[in-house]
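Troubleshooting entry. Yesterday's outputs looked truncated, so today I'm pasting the complete records for two proteins to confirm everything comes through intact. If either block looks cut off, that's the bug. Protein one:
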Amino acid sequence: MKREMQKDEIIFKCDAISKNFSGNEVLRDVTLQCRKGSVLALVGENGAGKSTLTNIISGNLKASSGKIQYKGKELKLKSSAQALEKGIAVVYQRLSLIPELSVAENIFLGKEKQFGKAILHNKKIHELAQKEIDEIEGFSINASKVVSGLTPAERQMVEIIKAWSTRPQLMILDEPTSSLASKEVKYLMKLIQKLKAQGTAFIFISHR
């Protein structure tokens, strides 16, 4: 019988993670843990190693030493795609949206099999994307709008919605407020509080 995670249970843990690049030590014995339905803030100056740790957690880099545990088991990832399959979504500071596609097409990019062979101009995709967008209190944007016409803040919010559409158990937000105005920050915080109450765990990375 599959065991369900209890509230406040540790969902993610880094144990003595270190990373060296050609003898240059970037991370040394980093240990942290994140509980279900919690927000863990990872704060440090630029160059402190936050992005390196994020890339190790997401499978884009291999740690020189140390272990990562996810839902009570040791986790060894080879890519961010594999991390997403496991329920770990990362929103990087450098956005991955395709400007020529619509908001909806970007949100469901890579998930075409759910909707048949064609993703472009798929009515169902746009309806589902609009539903995801409307979940964010106060935030409004048309899912049919082309990404190239969005503001930097709107693009950041779409990137976050894209990550949330996979319903991850752990979301890592890398400098999510760097391009957001105060009102968008409020939208983001409301969304985090909502998802936190539903059991999603967050690692919130910031240099501020």
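Protein two, checking that the full record survives here as well:
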Amino acid sequence: DFRVGLFVLLLAPDAYLPLRMIGANFHASTDGVAAIQKTFDLMEQRFEAPAPIRISPAPGKFTVLVGESGAGKSTALEALDGAEAAWMPQSPMLLPGTIAQNIAGFGQIEPALLAEAMRCASLDDVDLNQTVSDLNQALSGGQAQRVALARAVYRGLTHGAKMLLLDEPVSAQDKKRAAAIGKNLKHLAARGFTVVAVSHQDALSKVADRVIEVKR
């Protein structure tokens, strides 16, 4: 009667559920096996890495590398790094201590060269005795960047590193400070230093001796 038919209709989906699950799991496992096989095929392929971008910095010149993001500017800069180069990374770190210690280190400081490095980095808005934490909480982003730039210049002045490699040294600076830093770096190059900087800012490109566009 009606009650029996209704009872059968209600139970039928549950009765056939295991059969449906078998079919669904079979198709899922088949797709999974195919995906794994494709993964292994890709892993076994040999990919040729693109040739590294190499530049030849001009001694005693201020060179700026420009180009779109991801073109390999920082990689080209890193390829020049060596024992005779003072390096400023794109995301510099500061150590707990004073501004002076972050620039000149924790040993003996040469005041005249420290002052020169600070002038080159346009670092006239901080106190040398100011203490910073490892999180740079006491400095703005622009100030921390200029401390790192002063550190690289100081190393060049005191350690005989005649090459300065600077990765985005003015990205956090306003136009006025960026222009001042650009002129200072060019003056440093005129004194015999080889200065190579990666930058998206026109302030450096306008005063550079050479501008090299790095393309993909």
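Both blocks look complete. Sanity check on protein two: The longest strand covers residues 62-66.
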